[in-house]
Amino acid sequence: MTEYRVRFGLIRRWAVLACLVTNPVAADISQDPAVRQFVAEMQQKHRYAGAGLAQLFRQVTIQEPILNAMARPYEAKPWHAYKKLFLTDKRIAGGRQFMQAHQTALAAATQKYGVPGHIIAAIIGIETSYGETPGKYQVIDALSTLAFAYPKRASFFRQELEAFLLLCRDENMPPDQPVGSYAGAMGYPQFMPSSFRGYAVDGNGDGRRDIWHDPVDAIASVAHYLARNGWVNGEPVAVPAELSQGATRLSGKVLKAEYSLDQLGADGIRPTQTGLSGTLRGNLVALEETGGTAWWVGFRNFYAITRYNHSALYAMAAHQLGQALQAAPDSARVGSP
User: H or E element: which one contains 89?
Assistant: First the structure.
């Protein structure tokens, strides 16, 4: 409850917030000063109808389970535990079925954006098990909870709430309709609203960007996202590395591909895979296995995946799941350079 005290400030609201936790539908946040300020900003900046927004926020419920989920992100786990969540036989089998069902869309996305189909499928597989688990929260509830009752990142989620309302207006969707994750991520690829506005595309030419129900739009949107965030067609994602004694200058915590393989080699960091150009740019990646630290070199495509989720664990899971999907029978191996 401390986070509520910080955000709402006034002691007289404790009774309302206590009621909110046990019976969330009873609370009306529309008159909270922070909400009223947000409504005024939407009116001023975007000519949004204030009365309509006030009515919308009267229907919003602050969700305690969302705040609890934010306190235990998957990325807080060590790699050896994290990978077990995603590199499963079920997810690999599901990915092969997904790739088989959407061969044409994956091949088209690869041709247009240069991103391999197995990487696109892996990301959708990690995010929602290929569309099976897109989330259960109304996006307006999730974003409002985090914008007005989660001080740690309130500014970020207010921006996402703003982007969400704008995309609803742009796409002619009622704001109380879309459903997503506890963080407000949406559809097959779990785009945040700002990512939707910046990267979602109409993959099938029907005039809509429907990442909730249309896997073709979702596939094209993931490929577009990665391409716009630095994916380099034909380059590797990551390879295991060996460190010689004294190779301590790089910590393994910086994800950006800042050094050539020649530079890394001069520092005692060498990929175990042969035949790679010394001009390839990458950086050291440290992953915690049960037996100690595993070292990898992550290249520019590894960094591009971390722009989707700013975690080396996520990028490595996408890479390794993609490798497993790429090893599928030829009928499912599509969109791979």
Answer: helix 89-101
What string of DSSP letters covers 124-184?
Answer: HHHHHTTTT---SEEHHHHHHHHHHS-GGGHHHHHHHHHHHHHHHHHTT--TTS-EE-TT-
160 and 17 within one domain: yes
Q: Tell me, what CATH number does 243's domain have?
A: 1.10.530.10
In this structure, is residue 197 part of a structural domain? no
Question: Is position 315 within any domain?
Answer: no
Q: Is 127 a catalytic residue?
A: yes
**Within a domain: 15:** yes
Task: Give the closest residue to 231 by CA, choosing from 199, 187, 254.
Answer: 199
pLDDT of 337 above 50? no
Question: CA torsion, points 93, 98, 100, 104, in degrees to nearest 10?
Answer: -160
| One domain for residues 242 and 146 | no
What's the structural domain count of the chain? 2
Any domain includes 98:
no
pLDDT tens-digit profile of 249-290? 566 677 899 999 999 999 999 999 999 999 999 999 999 999
- Contact indicator for 262, 290 with CB cutoff of 8 Å: no
Say if residues 277 and 296 touch (Cβ distance below 8 Å).
Answer: no
From the candidates 41, 127, 242, 289, which is the catalytic residue? 127
pLDDT in tens, 120-149: 999 999 999 999 999 999 999 999 999 999
Domain carrying residue 243: 238-306
